[in-house]
Design brief:
With about 110 residues, the protein is mainly alpha-helical. It has helices at about 15-30, 60-75, 80-85, 95-100, and strands at about 40, 45-50. It folds into two domains: about 10-50, no CATH class; about 60-100, no CATH class. The chain has four helices and two strands, in the order H-E-E-H-H-H. Strands 1-2 form a two-stranded antiparallel sheet. Mean pLDDT is about 75; it is low at about 105-110.
């Protein structure tokens, strides 16, 4: 994690099943370990976290694009700004907390 701090992330039932299966497979292949996707070190002696890699056919900023897409979709389905920040492991500002606590107003659209 970029921030270096842990955070809670809600998961759907399907995602929970996928994570549980990954943990079972990882333990079957590598024995008890603390990693979701374990692998072996280059010398084959230690169990380590799987290294991340970039897909060469995708732009280098793919991870950031996916985060922006998540934020856009969250807004479309009425996830509050403060909740969206928390889901992306961003700090929630006092202003965002205040805005999410107040009722949302639908302002009338006017033609320009």
């Amino acid at each position: 994690m970029k921030s270096g701090r842990s955070f809670d992330l809600p998961l759907s039932d399907t995602m929970i099943e996928i994570v549980e299966e990954a943990l079972r497979v990882g333990e079957a292949l590598f024995g008890p370990n603390p990693y979701l996707f374990p692998s072996r070190s280059n010398d084959g002696k230690k169990v380590i976290a799987t290294a991340t890699w970039r897909e060469k056919s995708l732009p280098s900023e793919t991870g950031h694009l996916l985060r922006r897409t998540h934020r856009t979709v969250a807004k479309m389905v009425s996830v509050s700004d403060s909740e969206a920040c928390l889901l992306l492991d961003h700090k929630v500002t006092r202003m965002e907390k205040a805005l999410s606590a107040s009722p949302r107003r639908a302002w009338p659209r006017t033609s320009l």
